[in-house]
Inverse folding.
């Protein structure tokens, strides 16, 4: 890969993800937001959706469910996200339903993330975290990037 092409890919990835707060207010109602990183780059979103259409969500769910080491790796990522949310929620006076959603669900609001079968939810989710925060580098995000770039 040439230097210009590599620089273009790095810029596309940097511009393709945004980080969200843990909650927002809509018409006076506080809404929990359990997804911190969102893919906003149109081309990247489109390419990831094409992978989802090919069945890679269920492929990854099966793969992670059957591999205990991989499963434990992803459970730890969910736990790290909850820890980060708790830190961000400190000293905030939020309704119980907001706190419960943000401290009781994993990445993307996935419930029972520590039980099999593993739930991927969507490839965009894991790719967004993979790009958005180096602590969340993960095999699903890397797989997606390898396929779409």
């Amino acid at each position: 890969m040439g230097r210009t092409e590599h620089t273009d890919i790095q810029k596309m990835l940097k511009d393709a993800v945004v980080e969200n707060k843990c909650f927002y207010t809509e018409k006076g109602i506080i809404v929990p937001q359990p997804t911190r990183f969102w893919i906003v780059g149109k081309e990247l979103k489109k390419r990831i959706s094409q992978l989802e259409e090919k069945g890679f969500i269920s492929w990854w769910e099966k793969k992670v469910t059957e591999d205990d080491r991989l499963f434990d790796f992803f459970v730890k990522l969910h736990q790290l996200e909850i820890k980060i949310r708790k830190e961000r929620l400190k000293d905030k006076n939020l309704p119980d339903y907001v706190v419960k959603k943000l401290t009781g669900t994993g990445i993307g609001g996935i419930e029972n993330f520590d039980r099999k079968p593993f739930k991927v939810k969507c490839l965009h989710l894991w790719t967004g975290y993979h790009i958005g925060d180096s602590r969340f580098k993960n095999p699903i995000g890397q797989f997606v990037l390898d396929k779409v770039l």
Q: What stands out?
A: The chain has a mean pLDDT of 92. Residues 68-89 form the longest helix (22 residues). The chain is about 60% helix and 10% strand. Residues 82 and 103 are 5 Å apart (CA to CA).
